[in-house]
Predict the structure.
Amino acid sequence: MGKTAVKDLTSGKPMRLILGFMLPLLLGMLFQQLYNMVDTMVVGRYLGVEALAGVGSTGSINFLVMGFVIGVCAGFAIPVAQKFGSKDFAALRKYVGNTLWLAAALAAALTTVTCLLCTNILTLMKTPAEVFDKAHDYIFVIFLGIPVTFLYNTLSGFIRSLGDSKTPVVFLVISSLLNVALDIFMIVVLQMGVSGAGWATVISQLVSGLLCLVYIAKRFEILRLSKDDLTPSPYYIGRLCAAGLPMGLQYSITAIGAILLQTAVNSLGPSFMAAVTTGNKVSQLMCCPIDAMGSTMATYGGQNVGAGKIDRIKRGLFDCSMLGIGWSVIAFGIVALFGGSLAMLFVDKNDPETAAAIPEIIRLAKQFLFINSSFYIPLAFVNIVRFLIQGMGYPQIAVYAGMFELVARGAVGLLFVPAFGFNAVCFANPMAWVLADAFLFPTYFVCYTKLKRKNALSQAM
């Protein structure tokens, strides 16, 4: 199967396999959060609260676009994982070849549209005038980097589909360290402002994508494509779209709710915007293990469905759920004890222009973090169950789960924030997670029953 050993998740104890696959993913996500946090820390400390608020105000639109990219690429990788599980390597390479065409086309289209509409989007989000230019300078550069986001996520998705979750981590570590250095160089030395933080992110991700490309070319013979593999096929493109687009739309639909909420936060003023930005950064760090569990279950589900080992899915879900509950309790304790200290990493308390606002920003960020972390267990189930369902071959379910999150965040942003202010903002994410779980749990049992029945019929024949 090639020079590099790939990891088969269809045999062995699920807990051991899940941990072995998840831990490298977790390390990579932690480093990814590290360089995202460095962006925010450097911006907040060297460019001030308004710059921090400007960058933070782009978080939801960034999630809308980049979440779509990440979701689509994750969806494209599911047929690859399923064909690897069934040992159909010829079809696997066909899926890989057609994915490359789809990813290139989507990257070109998204980059063009988002860059042209960047100003209009920020205006519709009611971005305050005092932070508008900073928000635009940052997010425009991020949009220019959409092709490199596709490059890294597509190629790393291929690698993980074959069971290798370690190698992409190495490349993320390299790009994270590079991003830290570039952040400081471009913002502090070159004085490029918030656009320097954007370019640091794009360049470092380009490096990680190129490293994935070189690694695949040299080490994975199973992924060496022929001219026939690279010929566009309506059948494979259709199957890839059916797997990838619903996952991308799920992220985007979820992000629309986040945009509605962010628009409401923007109306509260820069201090509230900075507090939510800070709280989200800390929360994203705390949730890295939960995100890693979700990505793991997508590959685990895909390989085991491909191998026809449906019974292993239930055991895998149970084992991963225990991990999710355990980490959620630990994360809540960390936030409760150290939330304020973590929030202080993102602001410069010695800046005379913003010093008066910092105590209020930290107080608001602590409140936001405490309430959100109280609901990490529902969030863990959202990730674990949703990604498992997608790996089982039902990616369209993700769209419906995203609708529940959209309704919750949209209702808070449009109805409750004007009436209850920041207190309502703090409960927006928990409401979204609980509503999504109310849909995902019964849906999982329906999908699992269908797969069991389908597998039994195929074995009887």
User: Anything to note?
Assistant: Residues 14-456 form one domain. Residues 1-5 have pLDDT under 50 and may be disordered. The two ends are 30 Å apart (CA to CA). The chain is about 85% helix and 0% strand.
